[in-house]
């Protein structure tokens, strides 16, 4: 599925909005990232090449938008509507990448959330919203998330959503200056016939009401 039917697309759940990233987001994105530098540093991708650098914001957006046009990525910002503010506030980023069509029909999902918003259910809701779109609208079959074993907050997200732990991938990605092991989690469409978001909202609400 390519063209306007594939991208751009905006997803919403209550006050949470996943919208396409754009060059106009540079200032707000930079402010949130700078404020969260210490929070995000241990999990940040790095360039393994000697003297290599990461892309600038503009380069990153250009690459992500190109991948979206090619049908291999869905680059969203996680935003939240708040009272008295004219537009939703940026609270994180979520990218579905490495989309494979044909006989695989699978993708990989990655995300980060502003530390100020951690623990409020924003990350699991965003992940569930994106996964449902990939399964229900795009027809993908499998979603995979790879997480550093030391990253407790991200591990709790996949645990809450019921992603299966599959394996540990030694030295899988270059993170924060070194090759790092990652735990791999996955979910298939058959495992959430009624949708991941509805299951999360139902079970999350029940958990909040438990003594």
Automatic annotation (TrEMBL):
Keywords: Acyltransferase, Transferase. Residues 16-190 form the N-acetyltransferase domain. InterPro entries: Acyl_CoA_acyltransferase (IPR016181), GNAT_dom (IPR000182), N-acetyltransferase (IPR051531). The keyword Acyltransferase applies. Transmembrane segments: none annotated. Coiled coil: none annotated. PROSITE patterns: GNAT. The keyword Repeat does not apply. Belongs to the acetyltransferase family. RimJ subfamily. This is GNAT family N-acetyltransferase. It comes from Arthrobacter hankyongi.
């Amino acid at each position: 599925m390519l063209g306007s039917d594939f991208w751009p697309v905006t997803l919403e759940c209550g006050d949470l909005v996943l919208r396409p990233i754009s060059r106009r987001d540079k200032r707000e994105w930079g402010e949130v990232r700078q404020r969260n530098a210490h929070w995000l540093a241990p999990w940040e991708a790095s360039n393994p090449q000697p003297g290599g650098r990461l892309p600038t914001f503009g380069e990153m957006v250009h690459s992500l938008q190109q991948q979206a046009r090619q049908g291999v990525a869905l680059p969203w910002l996680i935003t939240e509507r708040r009272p008295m503010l004219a537009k939703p506030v940026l609270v994180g980023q979520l990218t579905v990448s490495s989309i494979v069509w044909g006989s695989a029909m699978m993708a990989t999902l990655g995300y980060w959330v502003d530390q100020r918003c951690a623990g409020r259910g924003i990350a699991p809701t965003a992940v569930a919203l994106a996964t449902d779109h990939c399964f229900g609208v795009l027809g993908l079959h499998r979603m995979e998330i790879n997480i550093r074993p030391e990253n407790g907050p991200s591990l709790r997200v996949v645990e809450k959503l019921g992603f299966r732990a599959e394996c540990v991938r030694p030295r899988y990605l270059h993170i924060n200056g070194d090759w790092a092991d990652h735990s791999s989690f996955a979910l298939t469409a058959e495992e959430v016939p009624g949708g991941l978001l509805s299951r999360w909202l139902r079970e999350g609400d029940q958990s909040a009401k438990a003594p």
